[in-house]
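Hey,

Quick one before I head out. I ran the complex with adenosine-5'-diphosphate overnight. Inputs first:
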Amino acid sequence: MAKYIVGLTGGIGSGKTTVSNMFAELGVEIIDADIIAREVVAPNSLALKEIAQHFGQEILLTNGELDRSALRSKVFADDEDKRWLNALLHPLIRQSILMALSQAAGQYCILSAPLLLENNLHVLVNTVLVVDVSVETQLKRTCLRDKSNQQEVNAIINSQINRDQRLALADDIINNERADLAYVREQVISLNARYQSQASAVNS
Ligand code: ADP
């Protein structure tokens, strides 16, 4: 069991997936909070049953899965519904993350979470690693990747913690501004070496 946990975060389009793939290539186990958040509301889960009871069956797709965009619209329009949903899901997601962390192998593992800081998940980790780019780069890369418009991406950026606040909570920062993945990999390799030695100090 890995006792040393690195929390990886960054705004939308900052390069979290790119960076976590590089750590995974080095053999580091990645626990992805987004995947866990989806598993918690999988078909037949208790959480999905409660959501369907609260919002009505029209919140489900014909295949029984959660209609995420319908749910997003509902909670966007109503703060009370948003609070209700968060009160249901956050403890379940947290519990499931804790379970995954307790089962992780290796010297250390990474908890990758876009909303690590916003949802207070950083209290679960030993150190916080932020992938950082300028807001202009975030916008440009996300629009390119998701084929979405600037307005939609801006709304997501504005719903997240701002760049200065995120950097203030970082123990380490990967600069992903340059269109140069070799430079990112160099930073990942050097952090991996440091995390391994920090982990062995904690684990011994
Ligand atoms: P996140 O997981 O934080 O949303 P991604 O890792 O998906 O971000 O990166 C956003 C987009 O930018 C992806 O299409 C990715 O391939 C691209 N990207 C990431 N890093 C770089 C880089 N250094 N140079 C150019 N494009 C990049």
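The beta strands are 4-9, 29-32, 108-112, 127-132, 172-175.

Talk tomorrow,
K.
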